[in-house]
What does this fold into?
Amino acid sequence: MKNVMFTVVLALGSLTTFAFSTNEIKSAVTESVLLQDGFSEISASDLPAEVSGALAKNYPTAKINKVSVNKSKQYKLEVSLEDGTAGTLYADEKGNWIEL
It folds into this structure.
């Protein structure tokens, strides 16, 4: 009888440990994905006038879907055009297009 109780306790303890370690792995993966990009989302109204002016000049039919910025003040613009195409543009704070 002691062996049966010991086996039940051991099995329950193993299941609890397995469930706990799975959650830790998921959160660690999520954090590393966020750190790779380096951009944080901002409001389109926070976009510098130089960048929005360059967008209006070079892509007059573009609609801004999402704006992000990194520590170097480089802006990532996710835009869609009138014809249905979408893309990502990168600009510095002075409105110059850059490649990342």
Observations:
- Strands lie at 40-42, 63-69, 75-80, 86-91, 97-98.
- The chain has a mean pLDDT of 80.
